[in-house]
Amino acid sequence: MAIEDAAALGILFSKKYFRNVSEALAVYEQVRLPRATRVQAAAAKAAYNINERIGFSVNKDIATYRVEDPQKVLTIEEMNADIDEALAEQRGEPFTAAYIHGLPIGLKLPNGVVIGG
After folding, report:
1. I need a surface site. Which of 24, 49, 54, 80 has the fewest CB within 10 A?
2. How far apart are CA 110 and CA 91, in angstroms?
3. Contact predicate 107/114, CB 8 Å
């Protein structure tokens, strides 16, 4: 989680996103607390099923791939998109990125569901 904390702060304090410290920290808290809770739950599941690990993608094309809930598999990409969405909300701006709750529109999940499709 420390690596994700650093990544989230790096995004929020980057030239692209930074406006002021209070806004950046408010968005950090809004995004990281729910994410950290989900990371803890995934880590507990990964203790008995390595497919529940957190990563950039999932290796769903192997015979032994099984997860408890494919819609709850965590990726790094979704955290980055959550930051974009939370910043837009904090600033009262429309959120126009190609994401829905941190998942890219068009992404095919392991269960076959396509985000936004």
Report:
1. 49
2. 34
3. yes
Phi and psi at 26, nearest 5°, equal -65, -45
| Cβ proximity of 28 and 11 under 8 Å | no
Q: Which amino acid is at 68?
A: E
Q: In terms of Cα–Cα distance, which of 40, 98, 33, 48 is closest to 72?
A: 40
For residue 115, give every residue at least 6 positions away whose Cβ sits within 8 Å of its Cβ, in sequence order, or none.
100, 103, 104, 105, 106, 107, 108, 109
- pLDDT tens per residue, range 28-63: 999 998 888 888 888 888 788 777 776 645 566 777
* DSSP output for 9-42: HHHHTSTTT-S-HHHHHHHHHHHHHHHHHHHHHH
pLDDT, tens only, 66-89: 778 777 777 766 777 788 888 989
Q: What tokens appear for 31 in the block? A: 């995004």
CA distances from 45 to 9, 19, 41, 69, 74 (A): 27, 38, 6, 11, 12
